[in-house]
Design brief:
The protein has 13 helices and 3 strands; from the N terminus they run H-H-H-H-H-H-H-H-H-H-H-E-E-E-H-H. It has 333 residues and is mainly alpha-helical. The chain has a 3-stranded antiparallel sheet with strand order 1-2-3.
């Protein structure tokens, strides 16, 4: 231990406040104050909230210093249940909102909304960081190292499971929508295409439209050192996309990418959005039939272009035969 580390350790030991005079830590008043009125209105027991804020790694620390005391309950089971519920709510919401979203982008969007980093951020915003009880664990051959953000992410998951247990599935869905799914996530940055022009040609052919053509819309400074070109891509008389760049090739690339973004990021209007989990009643028991709920499933989106879903594999989809070619094959047979 270096000189600076010794100074910090000695200073921290002098100013540290002992909690031995408290009957329980964190105290009940701190739990009610830190978790907020919204959670306390649903989960009225501070002991349950204390369990939601206790990571399973805390058991090792508690057993080390208090071997004769009973093991405190942890949020391991609650976090697992809450993680499954949050994944369900995020998946159905994103799939219903963006029916044409590619599969890999959908998975990335779900992680962006309810992933570990987002859960840790929400826990900070809720004020639950001060109530977390955990113990840092190093990396082992069978498990990665446990960081503070990983332990903190278990709190919103456990709270989601508690809302589901105490209230109903619809209440848990409202909780997740309020704290997680209402956030703005840039989905355009997740859509990357290795060759957007080729992907657009395949997409237009799949819909039976005319072959896309590029047209120069505007330009300035062609013979200068900073030219600007604006290119639009058209299928017949319909404009599919528009892009700009310092060269015609760059502008055409961005125009094709913009056309694909307009397709894959087509969003369902909020008044037409219906979720499959909304068919369950508002009661806690989802197995008992409740009042009938009108539900109309949304239309399935178009399958994404195989080689354009990620931009990393380099897979090129085989060219699909046209209707004329299929008719010619039937005539030959």
């Amino acid at each position: 231990m270096g000189h600076v580390s010794k100074r910090l350790y000695s200073t921290a030991s002098k100013v540290a406040v002992s909690t031995s005079h408290l009957k329980q830590f964190p105290p009940r008043e701190a739990i009610v104050r830190q978790t907020g009125r919204a959670v306390v209105a649903v989960i009225r027991s501070p002991d349950v909230i204390r369990r939601a804020c206790t990571h399973k790694s805390f058991v090792n620390l508690h057993t080390k210093y208090y071997p004769s005391s009973p093991t405190p309950p942890t949020n391991a089971d609650l976090a697992s249940l809450g993680n499954a519920l949050m994944g369900l709510f995020a998946s159905e919401h994103l799939h219903a909102s963006y029916p044409h979203l590619p599969t890999r982008v959908l998975k990335a969007a779900v992680s962006a909304h309810v992933g570990p980093l987002t859960c840790a951020s929400v826990a900070h915003e809720m004020g639950a960081a001060a109530l977390l009880r955990w113990y840092r664990q190093p990396m082992t051959p069978t498990s990665p190292a446990l960081l503070h953000s990983d332990a903190l992410a278990s709190i919103p998951r456990a709270l989601t499971a508690l809302v589901y247990q105490e209230r109903s599935l619809s209440s848990a869905r409202k909780f997740v929508h309020s704290f997680f799914l209402g956030r703005q996530v840039d989905l355009r940055a997740m859509l990357k295409f290795q060759d957007p022009k080729r992907a657009l040609m395949e997409t237009v052919a799949k819909f039976g439209r005319e072959r896309p053509k590029s047209r120069l819309l505007k330009e300035t400074g062609r013979f200068s050192n900073s030219p600007i070109f604006v290119v639009g891509i058209y299928s017949g008389a319909d404009k599919l996309g528009e892009g700009f760049g310092s060269s015609l090739k760059m502008a055409e690339y961005r125009a094709a990418e913009d056309a694909l973004h307009r397709l894959y990021l087509t969003r369902t209007p909020s008044h037409l959005l219906q979720l499959p989990s909304s068919t369950f009643g508002t009661q806690g028991d989802i197995y008992n039939p409740g009042p009938a709920v009108d539900y109309t499933p949304g239309a399935l989106g178009e399958a994404e272009i195989l080689y354009a879903s990620s931009g990393r594999s380099g897979i090129v989809a085989p060219k699909q035969p046209t209707i004329d070619e299929l008719e010619a094959r039937k005539d030959d047979v």
